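Retry 2 of 3 after timeout on previous attempt. Resubmitting structure tokens to design endpoint.
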């Protein structure tokens, strides 16, 4: 099933919701922005059944929500990862990465934390590669 970012999601994949919607219920709790879910079923009309990543409550999302507001959850921003712990974390940083974002990115992994540095990007227009 194709989701908002153009990726293909299948049963068992981790997905993330990107908009609060109180009309969509998962066992008494509504679907919220940045919630993580496991895809449990898909329908030919584009609907998707999801279960909370840490729990048993399920929700059925309409095809319009799936097409616009669902993404695979294997990669995320530092802001969405704050407070989460994973086995391994991989962070891409650049000269514009703040120390606060770097700290959050580099402190998520239990077993390892890897930082990849973009050495080609230069945010200074006077020294960057597009200089006149």
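Retry 2 succeeded. Sequence:
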């Amino acid at each position: 099933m194709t989701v908002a970012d153009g990726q293909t999601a299948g049963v068992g994949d981790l997905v993330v919701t990107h908009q609060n919607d109180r009309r969509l219920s998962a066992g008494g709790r509504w679907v919220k922005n940045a919630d993580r879910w496991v895809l449990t079923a898909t329908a030919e009309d584009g609907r998707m059944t999801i279960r909370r990543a840490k729990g048993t409550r399920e929700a059925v999302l309409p095809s319009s929500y799936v097409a616009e507001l669902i993404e695979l959850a294997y990669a995320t921003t530092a802001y969405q990862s704050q407070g989460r712990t994973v086995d391994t974390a991989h962070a891409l940083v650049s000269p514009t990465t703040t120390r606060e974002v770097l700290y959050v990115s580099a402190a998520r992994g239990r077993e390892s934390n890897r930082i990849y540095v973009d050495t080609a990007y230069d945010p200074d227009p006077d020294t960057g590669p597009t200089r006149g």
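Attempt log closed. The helical segments are 63-69, 78-81, 99-106.
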